[in-house]
Write a structure and sequence with these properties.
Layout: H1 16-28, H2 33-43, E1 61-65, E2 74-77, E3 83-86, H3 94-99, E4 105-109, H4 115-118, H5 121-127, E5 130-135, H6 143-153, E6 159-162, E7 166-170, E8 173-177, E9 195-199, E10 202-206, H7 212-220, E11 229-231, H8 243-249, E12 253-256, H9 268-277, E13 280-283, H10 284-287, E14 290-294, E15 300-304, H11 306-313, E16 344-349, E17 364-369, E18 375-376, E19 381-383, E20 389-391, E21 397-398, E22 403-407, E23 417-419, E24 433-437, E25 443-448
Helix pairs in contact: 1-2, 1-6, 5-6
Bound molecules: zinc ion (2 copies).
């Protein structure tokens, strides 16, 4: 069994020219791939060269569900800068990757050869260096698949990895490849390459277009851990979940990668199941890009829409302190109430018109500036006493003498209004504390009522 480490110099890796043969073989005789891939590993002696210095050095693992319409393209960015791309949508995903600051892919995974997962992959291979490529070894008859295979064959330096159970390091995160149903025993969706991503206590499971058969297989194989994040299988189809799978995984957050489609995705039954088992469900068709920022302690924050790209383009705005959404530790209790920033004023409108939980945008926090200068607040956090936090996107500015409003619910931020993206009220009507932290985690201002 090979355990290639994506960024560990000295680890063995399959020989490039042999891996090229593996690609050619996949076209004609997919069945032999398992044997080939297994025999390749012991031959390997080539150390993986050290990478260029990581472009970021914070402690956040980023899982970004790119808004590629109906399809999947999930970008993983390790704290040390390594990248993996799981599927590449149907169309051209390269501009989105560039927006995210991605210039190379360490590990490219095709979950299964359907066009809404591999359509954009040839473009990725033609546009940036890719080090490792993984698929399930199952060929397909489409022109899209043939194009992908040609692009791979033209790049012998890419090392092929078959999706057999193994663990791959992605910086300080790891990817466990889950066992697949036997080749030929089921359809493409039910042999989707599936991975469990781990970063400390943060766990995520991504499994392409898995349907009931594959999800049941994972539960029976006891490979489904308690999850922080679940990528809804098969675009929120009602065959993309089972109750036993969800009850085993107990995800805190579910993300559905879905666009306009004729299948009725996401299905009401799936939405209800996710609502019943997870804290929140996000959808790329409603929220645009969805980025889940995971931390070692299991805490996570969600950034969405235009905020995802702007956070990527503003390196300094990257958080150095974990945002506390999803964490248990209360922060506001430790807040010193003295020495506030006298140039900022904060107020909370906690009582929304009507039922607060049905009108989360009816409650909001207003931050006013009496400062004569603009203040860059990208990377700052606004938290309630129970540690529900909002992370201001990179590039956010509180203008001199101006003010911003942070609503609890969802909406498009416009530089004046921001949205915490929550479905339920956050600010207690009978008393709470709003604390504003700067990028370093220092308290700028705390307001109790
Ligand atoms: Zn699909
Ligand atoms: Zn599919």
């Amino acid at each position: 069994m090979s355990h290639p480490a994506i960024d560990s110099p000295g680890q063995p890796t399959p020989h490039p020219t042999r891996s090229r043969r593996a690609f050619a073989t996949a076209a004609i005789l997919a069945v032999s791939l398992t044997a080939l891939a297994t025999t390749l590993a012991p031959l390997a002696t080539t150390p993986v060269p050290a990478q260029t210095p990581p472009p970021q050095s914070d402690s956040t693992l980023r899982v970004t569900f790119l808004d590629v319409g109906q399809g999947d393209a999930v970008l993983l960015q390790a704290p040390e800068g390594q990248t993996a791309l799981i599927d590449a949508g149907r169309g051209d995903v390269v501009p989105l990757l560039r927006e995210m600051g991605v210039t190379r892919i360490d590990l490219l995974i095709a979950t299964h050869p359907h066009a809404d997962h591999i359509g954009g992959m040839t473009g990725v291979l033609e546009s940036m260096p890719v080090r490792f490529y993984m698929d399930n070894g199952d060929p397909h008859t489409t022109a899209t698949y043939s194009r992908l295979l040609s692009a791979l064959e033209a790049r012998p330096a890419i090392t092929y990895l078959e999706a057999t159970p193994r663990t791959i390091s992605l910086g300080s995160a790891s990817l466990e490849v889950l066992p697949l149903l036997p080749r030929g025993s089921t359809d493409h969706n039910n042999r989707s390459v599936a991975v469990v991503l781990r970063f400390g206590d943060f766990t995520a499971l991504l499994s392409g277009d898995s349907e009931v058969q594959q999800l049941t297989h994972f539960v029976n194989q006891q490979v489904v851990p308690k999850l922080t994040l679940l990528k809804a299988a098969h675009h929120g189809s009602d065959n993309g979940f089972t109750w036993s799978f969800l009850q085993t995984a107990r995800p805190e957050v579910v993300v559905i990668s879905v666009g306009r489609n004729g299948y009725g995705h996401p299905r009401p039954a799936a939405l209800e199941a996710y609502a019943a088992t997870a804290g929140e469900t996000l959808r790329t068709d409603l929220h645009g890009h969805v980025q889940v920022q995971g931390h070692r302690d299991g805490a996570y924050a969600v950034v969405r829409g235009a905020q995802v790209a702007s956070a990527a383009s503003s390196g300094r705005a990257r958080i150095t302190q974990p945002p506390i959404i999803g964490a248990e530790t209360p922060v506001a209790d430790a807040t010193p109430m003295s020495a506030p920033n006298t140039k900022l004023r904060l107020s909370v409108t906690a009582d929304a018109p009507g039922n607060d939980h049905q009108n989360p945008n009816g409650e909001y926090v207003t931050i006013e500036s009496m400062d004569a200068r603009d203040i860059a607040i990208g990377g700052w956090r606004l938290c309630d006493r129970a540690s529900h936090c909002f992370l201001f996107p990179g590039g956010a500015v509180l203008e001199a003498g101006g003010r911003i409003v942070v609503h609890t619910g969802t909406g498009q931020p416009d530089g004046f209004r921001y949205y915490m993206g929550r479905r339920q009220a956050v600010w207690n009507n009978d008393g709470d504390t709003a604390t504003l932290f700067d990028r370093s985690g220092a308290i700028v201002l705390a307001f109790s009522y």
